[in-house]
Design brief:
Oligomer: single chain
Number of helices: 22
Strand content: 5-15%
Strand order of the largest sheet: 5-6-7-15-13-12-8-16
Shape: extended
Radius of gyration: 45 Å
Helix content: 25-40%
Number of strands: 18
Structural class: alpha+beta
Distance between the termini: 129 Å
Amino acid sequence: MTDLTFFRWHRKQENRARHHRESRSPVLPRRQRSLWRILILASLFCSLWIVGNSEVMAQTPPLNLSEIIHKRLEVRRPPEPELSPVVPEPSADPNGSSTVDAANTEEATSAPTNPPQPSAPGQAPQPQPTTPVPAPQVQAQAPATPEVVAPAPKPIKFIPPKLRVGKDPLPTSAMLTRFYDGRGHQPAWTNNAGVLPHVETFLQLLHTEAEREGLHAKNYDSAKIKTLLTEVRPGAGTTGPAPDALVDLDFLLTDAFLRYGADTSLGDVTLDSLTEKWFETNGEADLVLALQNALLTNTLEATLKNFPPQQEGYVKLREVFMRYQAIAEQGGWPSVPTGDTLQFGDQGARVATLRARLLASEDLATVSANTTTPIRTVSSEQREARNLPQEEKGRAEALFDETTEAAVKTFQRRHRLTENGIVNKDTLAALNVSAGIRAQQIARNLERWRRLPKDLGKRHIAVNVPDFMLEVVEDDRPVMDMKVVVGKVMRERATPTFSAPMKYVVLNPYWNVPKSIAQKELLPLSRKSPKYLARNNFSIKRVSAGVKQVRDPNAADGSMISVKTYDYLLRQGPGPKNALGRVKFMFPNDHSVYLHDTPSKDLFNREIRAFSHGCIRIEKPVDLAEYLLQGTPKGSRKAIQATFKHNKERTVWLPEPVPVHIQYWTAWVDDDGSLQFRNDIYGYDRLPGASRLSATTKPRTKLRKKSRPRPRIQQQAPQMEIQPPAPPPPAQTEAHTTM
């Protein structure tokens, strides 16, 4: 065996022995020991890092409330526009070449073309003949083709997200942001120590005032506010109130104040649109400034009470609402059982219930004494034989006397029912509407009051659609009233509610027939009677309809030319048969609704006067025109009637605009202090028991959770016991679309 072979064999034996010893020894191999050392060092380093960071975090103070508020409001800031770098364009010479090209050309032309040749030693260098260099030629450039530049993209409008408390957005985010920006992001209801004292006062006032105005405190997140108050009060936690919870509470309280102010002083508005410019344009008190002033001067109570309207009509209706709400909370009034018609001379348990019902609504002031001889009474012997209890004897002896009859007439007068003193089906249905339903109906009308302008005008015209009446009011007192005919109980024919100033009066007006009426009503009549249009003073007039682009027939390149277009208008001339009568009162508005005369005078004798296409027909047009035009040269009654004889249209402008308020009052307090109710003909009240408000109407739609100013109503008029009149001739109709 050679030395090399022996060496290899010996090394192999040593490796086997070492491997055998390591496999039986508890000591880890070298590679595994190194890995474990690395893991131990890494864990030690992580522990030291965590301990160091915890000490730094403990030493860092938490954010105060103003910093948290500022951080939350940052989401509503529009992002700064990105500025793109401006790349300088190379300047060009008059010939069209750039400055760099010109410099290069100059250098190239100035360089020698034939360098000098080296000469022999001792000899001067020989000049070389120069080759003439041609002058650079300037080439005429073709006119540049204008590049087609794509229109710059419109900047994306930034819509700030709503502020949130938890997952719920705050409806008044715009006003709330402006409020906290104006006070340097300082909280208004809390501080780092907890809740400020005026929070409890505000919550009590909010609950009291909201219930008094027909609203509910729960609509202003009262449950969330109470929950947060419990969390941030002392003792709720060991480390004190959390700053984020305090900011949430501050936001909710501010949102509640702003929402209540908007509901009671502005009515139905979009809260996101209430910017500082909106308040200035509409002449309304800025709610943000109102809150700032109330907190600075400690006048929260006075500010909350000044939000609702201060008109006499609103104050009276609110007092009645509180009384009806108290009656409903105490169980309401009794319901009169159904049965035969009750009238003078009847007696029994139903009459006793009727008297109790009239007494609860103050139609029967006191219990009358039955001094007259009873009709269909029961003898004393029969009463003793029955051995009735004293209470049942009194109920059995209740008599429908003259006082009860007068009370029934008063009730019928307040509900615009036939005033005959007889409790028929219509009167019984109105009697059995519960006090809670009536309280809700009053609350709906309080809400309509809050949508009206603060100043109705020293002299204004008020139209009540459900009452079918018009009043001229001067210095808060009616000086004229008259019956009106309003829109049909259909979606497209219902008279809208709005306010607008009346500016002029048209005598002997033309009636421009809308296309829908011409096609659906007049065209079928003209087919049956070809002379119908001429007989009723209708004519066709060509009117300009604008300009449109058409292809030029004489051009081979297909170019376009502008041509005028015309439309044909069917209109009815002035005269006694005109659908608008002799007078039209104009107050321009988006609904194209106006007041006008009508040749169908018989419709004013109906109890339910909902027959128009949306405009309002008035009973006394000449009286109203004379009142509005008083003081003008031709505003007398004699001059107005003289104008009618000429059958020529004439426009007369009013000396000053007169506000017109077309409203939907189903409950109000009249000048005598009596509470008036009317049928909800369009179904705008959305009451649970609306079907019982009148036996002659049916509910329009189901009740929605949230009332709207213009709810949907059914497409067709409901079935009524009072038969509507025969449809008037088409010449006696109008539309509230384009006239």
